[in-house]
Amino acid sequence: MKELLLLFISSSLLITPITSSPAFKTTPRFLSKFSNTNKPLTQQNLKYETQYFTQTLDHFTFSNLPTFQQRYLINSNYWSGPLQMGPIFFYCGNEGDIEWFAANTGFVWEIAPRFNALVVFPEHRYYGESMPFGSREKAYENASSLAYLTTEQAIADFAVLVTDLKWNLSAKACPVVFGGSYGGMLAAWMRLKYPHIAMGALASSAPILQFEDIVPSETFYDIVSRDFMRESSSCFDTIKKSWGALEVEGMKDDGLVQMSSNFRLCQRLNNTKDLSDWLSSAYSYLAMVDYPYPSEFLMPLPANPIKEVCREIDSYPNGTSVLERIFAGVSIYYNYTGTVDCFDLGDDPHGMSGWDWQAKQCIKEFGIKPRPQWVTTEFGGHDIRTTLRTYGSNIIFSNGLLDPWSGGGVLQNVSETIVALVTAEGMTRE
Ligand SMILES: *[C@@H]1O[C@H](CO)[C@@H](O)[C@H](O)[C@H]1NC(C)=O
Ligand SMILES: *[C@@H]1O[C@H](CO)[C@@H](O)[C@H](O)[C@H]1NC(C)=O
Ligand SMILES: *[C@@H]1O[C@H](CO)[C@@H](O)[C@H](O)[C@H]1NC(C)=O
Ligand SMILES: *[C@@H]1O[C@H](CO)[C@@H](O)[C@H](O)[C@H]1NC(C)=O
Ligand SMILES: *[C@@H]1O[C@H](CO)[C@@H](O)[C@H](O)[C@H]1NC(C)=O
Ligand SMILES: *[C@@H]1O[C@H](CO)[C@@H](O)[C@H](O)[C@H]1NC(C)=O
Hints:
Rossmann fold, protease, alpha/beta, dipeptidyl-peptidase activity, globular, eight-stranded mixed β-sheet
């Protein structure tokens, strides 16, 4: 077991996103249309089969609740099979369409042949096609339909799925290594909660400390701010000023109409907040994908996108309105390809809107009271080092310090088998 982990570590953890490969450079995709495209995988080794598994909606009750179809992608081309004890790399899907994650998780596809591993990408419930209640609309309809969108249920899905899969493949003895990026947390928790199922975990950018009072909740935004400030302080100042400018503009008589037109929105703006949310999510995502090479992880973007955004914002002569600059800046993010006719604030190209529910516990939106202590009660977090050292093993935490999630990540080695790999500059995203 430990050998695999060591192999895991020693095999270069340099993360090469597939999107940086020549194949993709010559065939740019437009991610905002992503959901409509066929499998975007142009690389030979990215082939997989799509399967569906009948999953229990509620794992923690015995009442007769409905099931739903959970999608998973599987590739057995490299697998040495059960007799050779070929490992299973089970990459936890997180907040989004699983095909999108699979296409952007180069690392797993790169190491699979080396380890003769079976690759499985299960989709997270309530994302992509894995919708309870038959459709996205029904699943997200109200607080009771959303009640089964919890981390506990999601990792139970993974545990049930992989167990059943091993049974079907007569591969009960094969070691399973869990991985994940945004949901690297899920991978780490799989290992902690289901150690008999997960032999090890590779948790990238796993903000498992990002709860409660363990690290200040502002940390994420502090890092986003730092990323912009680091690039240009005038750029940062302009962004900072823009929030006030938006408010002021929004109060004016036809301010919302004016802004809808200036920001080239497809629909008339109903309030300022929708626009500022749209802007701030661009900045957050930019900080998450500030790679030194062109990428298409969230959107087609140039290398060093924050630098490009700031270059745009700073390029305007003094006296230009703050909002005009901001617009030019976010256009790098939302319209880098230059093919967008108008901006749709409701556009959620990666099916990530459910993320709000889990990450921010939107009280207003769904009328649900958050339970701030629950996550740490369920998964730990306070003095996590002691817990991990005492009860945990075989987890690799990898973090890039510019990644806004790193503030809540495990950045120090905890024990011989719980190690932190930290890159000062780069972003880890596998
Ligand atoms: C909530 O949504 C579910 C699923 O669509 C539906 O069956 C149920 O009746 C709704 N409940 C309320 C209180 O609206
Ligand atoms: C295992 O096989 C059964 C019977 O064919 C099937 O219903 C089930 O979906 C399979 N499990 C998985 C994880 O594919
Ligand atoms: C404003 O409200 C209308 C009616 O509810 C809606 O159709 C439109 O999409 C909203 N505009 C934006 C930008 O969300
Ligand atoms: C704009 O004004 C600031 C000080 O007010 C100055 O530092 C900066 O160089 C000016 N930028 C341009 C492009 O003129
Ligand atoms: C997107 O960029 C293209 C090319 O620069 C431009 O013609 C178009 O107006 C932009 N779209 C929006 C909505 O700003
Ligand atoms: C943790 O240990 C590994 C080797 O065991 C080393 O490569 C890595 O740099 C260490 N991480 C930190 C953050 O010191």
